[in-house]
């Protein structure tokens, strides 16, 4: 496939960019029961605290966060933005040259499935549980959506790039959870459950990756080559760029 782009110009020069090769690395996404141990423990803990330890544990943590930690400090809203930092790492690190486990198309599919699962489960539970936030703004406290988003991304980074980058992503995700406490937006049980749900949804994306590709007939080429060759049209003098992609 060749795409020709022309830009008006009188420049009389041409140069060529070397071909960039992208090779697919295939990773098994088979279900492994060990993958559900950590998220199941977090989800169960969140439910037990929400149901049986709210007055003691949740209230105690909220008091510490809002009175001892935050005090008179102003509201900080950067958790609304850094919740997406692990997601950006998952999709972007591979393009920055970090070795990956999946082709970039696989990463986008896996990520899409993971976050679609999180949106369905998280919003559904918010509607069913109908739990008031500690600041009383609404009844969408359980589970924490911000925490779920951050921990889904963090686990995807760990799965894709290992614990080196995964540790950094988890640090960001944990900071999001703490900021939800600081801003009095969630109870501790909301955060614990949200973290477990996020990790679980990341694995759902991995488990459903190959079935989704088979369902929609998506095939990843073994090798994809790009060639970019800017040149000058001898007739019009316009600077053109030719992009060639070989599958």
Structure description:
The protein has 247 residues and is of the alpha+beta class. It is 55% helix and 13% strand. It has eight helices and four strands. A four-stranded antiparallel beta sheet has the order 1-4-3-2, with no helix packed on it. α1 packs across α2 and α5 packs across α8. The longest helix is centred in the last third of the chain and has 29 residues, at 188-216. It is globular. The protein starts with a strand and ends with a strand.
Summarize this entry quickly.
The chain has eight helices and four strands. It starts with a strand and ends with a strand.
Question: Tags for this entry?
Answer:
247 residues, alpha+beta, four-stranded antiparallel beta sheet, disordered N terminus
